[in-house]
Structures are given as C-alpha cells and as structure tokens.
Sequence to fold (255 residues):
Amino acid sequence: MFLPTAALALLATTAGVQAVTVIPSNSFSSLSTFESFWNYLYPWGSDHNGSARMVGSSSDHSHINVASSTLSLIATPTSNPSPPTSSANPHPAIHYASGAIHAKAQITVTNTNAYTISGEFSSPTAKGTWPAFWLTAVNGWPPETDIGEWKGTTQNWYNTFNTSSVVRSDLVSWPSDLSFHALKAVLTAESNGADVRIDFYMDNVLRATQFGQGFVGKPLWLIINLQMEGSSGSPGPSGTTTYKIRNVQVTRTGS
Fold:
C-alpha cells in the first residue's frame, strides 16, 4: 500500500512517542504498593458535599481496603459523628463513615503531552449512593471532569465543568448487578493551546466527547471516593455499601 509523504511522517512521529506509566495497573496489588501511588482521603481532608465523612489511614483500613488487587471503599451508617455536619459546602449532616483516596501524582495536560486514565469499576447504584472516579483542580475550581459518577441510579454521568453553571453532562446506562465495567478517559490539548478534549469510553466504546475550556496547564487531582446521599438522594442505605475498583492505570504520552 502506498502512503503519501505526510502520512509517512506522521507514522514516524507517532512511532517515536512512548507512553510513561504514571500509575501502574497493579497499584492495588498490595498495601505497600497502594501507599506508593495513593494518599488516603480527599486532598483537602475528610469531608465534601455529601453525608459521608471519609475515614482511613495506614493504620485504619475499615473503610479503605486493598485485597486481591482490588480497592474496596466501604460506607457504613454512623451515629453521633463529631462534628455532626460536613465542614464543606453545603454542610450536610454526617450519616456515614466511608472511604476516599487520591493519587499522589497530579495530572497536567499541556500542549506537548496527553493522558489516558482507565480502570474497572463495580459501582453501587442504589438511592443515596454517590461513588465517583474524577479529576478536579489542584488550585481553585474548576477544572473538573468526572469519568465515573453514579448518583443513586443505573446511569454513569460523564461531566465536564467549565464554570459552576456551564457544565456538559452525558449519561450512559450502567448495570445494577455490581459487575465490573471498564471506563477510560483520554485527555488531549486542542490546537488553540488552551482547551482540553476529553474522550470518554465504556467497555472500550467511545460514549462521549467533551471539552474543558482553559484546562491546558491546570494541575488536577485524580480522586476515587464513595460519597453518600447529597445529589444521589436520601435516605441512603441502612446497611453497608461497597464500591470496588481494580486495574486503575494512568499513562502519559509526550513530555
């Protein structure tokens, strides 16, 4: 097959680009490996915008557990929490103890690199459960991009926030049987040098494409958490809820 000169040049350029592994797919293979790549809780602490307070440390794995190469985030009802309300807006009452982690490596898309973020998820979808797999700004807010977000329904929400009111959401059906499904996001800079294109995949099928305005050069946290109630409705479950994650991987191409 004959290829024009321009195509040959593109192939040669692409062939020379090697992917750098930022987080390997085996980061949940052991507790020591997990702690090499991930931190406990949210980057800002234990509370956020739902009724679960995150609990976990190197000596407390009751809500953040790693076993059989799988991360389990576990929410349980709690009584008489102190303080009784979340320290984060909109300061909901705390009804659960749960788990959150964030990657030690920050993700910054530039004009000379691209990122691929992927994993497999067994996500609860009952009313009052609010698990997520998402990127949010290190400095200020937005940017925010939600690769996986389940708000108490059998739908995954792909979201990109350009401002608090300018948000693109694409909803994709998600099974309720707690089987594992693969999610992936590919983040690349647009030709204008400012915006980021985000291609979202489920089970290797492209499901949505969104654009983050001004996301280039903005460092992002990668967070996995099991929040409760809030946007997912209330009351939440009266028993234990478990969110399972495996094979999370982050790779970077370019410099």
User: Anything to note?
Assistant: The chain is about 5% helix and 45% strand. Residues 1-15 have pLDDT under 50 and may be disordered. The two ends are 32 Å apart (CA to CA). The chain has one domain: 25-254.
